[in-house]
Amino acid sequence: SQTIHQWPATLVQPVGSPLSLECTVEGTSNPNLYWYRQAAGRGLQLLFYSIGIDQISSEVPQNLSASRPQDRQFILSSKKLLLSDSGFYLCACPDSSAEKLFFGSGTQLSVL
Amino acid sequence: GESVGLHLPTLSVQEGDNSIINCAYSNSASDYFIWYKQESGKGPQFIIDIRSNMDKRQGQRVTVLLNKTVKHLSLQIAATQPGDSAVYFCAENGHYNQGGKLIFGQGTELSVKP
Predict the structure, then answer these.
(1) Which residue, among B24, B36, B17, has the nearest Cα to B77 in the 3D structure?
(2) pLDDT score recorded for residue A60
(3) Which residue of A29, A68, A71, B32 shows the fewest CB atoms closer than 10 Å?
């Protein structure tokens, strides 16, 4: 079964600072990877998905970008964080059926 | 637009009672639905799923019901325990129909009273 590693678990950053969140996956045969964001008390919003190395699609316009330099590595970045970037960021990958998603443990980002 | 929403944001039940969490979806093209459980500070965990060619599916203490006529999905938890306290999300595959892209509802917070 797949394992999704996300770090750091929590992060406090000042407005205007850069961001880099990393996700690595193991044990999956499906190449798709996803970044979701969850605001406090809300559902999950899909930010980016990737079907392979250097193949990224953005679902919503925003201050963030994503990269996939290696097959099992998915990175979420920002050059200058905004207050509105605060939230719980989750990396996910599908199971072998390509339908249900498995999630990492998430990164709680607070932008102050 | 597409939306997956829950009727109630919070639900409080007594330990040992059955819980029913409801979800409405709007995309008639969705043919796959999932329920997730999310504990505080953790990622969502898969509970149970159902395809549109089914009306009911049972797991261990959980049952998912799908009513395609009214686009309604529900999660029933039997003999609710304190460990069931969490936020529950329904999700649908919308028109994506591939690759694991899901549309999530807002979530219902289940609180179990001892």
Answers:
(1) B17
(2) 80
(3) A29
- Mind giving me the DSSP string for A38-105? E-TTS-EEEEEEEEETTEEEESS--S-EEEEEETTEEEEEESS--GGG-EEEEEEEE-TTSSSEEE--
The residues pairing with B92 across neighbouring beta strands, listed in sequence order, are: B33, B103
State whether B43 and A103 contact (CB < 8 Å).
yes
Nearest residue in A to B51, CA atom: A99
Asked if A47 and A64 touch (Cβ cutoff 8 Å), the reply is yes
d(CA B31, CA B24): 14
- Cα–Cα distance between A70 and A88 in angstroms, integer? 24
User: Residues B32-69: pLDDT tens digits?
Assistant: 999 999 998 899 999 999 999 999 999 999 999 999 99
How far apart are alpha carbons B67 and B33 in whole angstroms?
Answer: 12
Torsions phi, psi for B47 (to 5 deg): -110, -60
**Backbone φ and ψ of A70, nearest 5°:** -135, 160
The pair of three-digit structure tokens given for residue B101, joined into one six-digit string: 């892209």
| Interface residues on B facing A, Cβ-Cβ cutoff 8 A | 4, 9, 32, 34, 41-46, 49, 89, 91, 93, 98-107
Rounded to the nearest 10 degrees, how much is the dihedral formed by the CA atoms of B87, A101, A4, A35?
-80
A54 at interface of B, judged by CB pairs closer than 8 A:
no
Which residues, numbered 60 to 99 in chain A, qualify as contacts with chain B under a Cβ-Cβ cut-off of 8 Å? Answer: 90, 92-95, 98-99
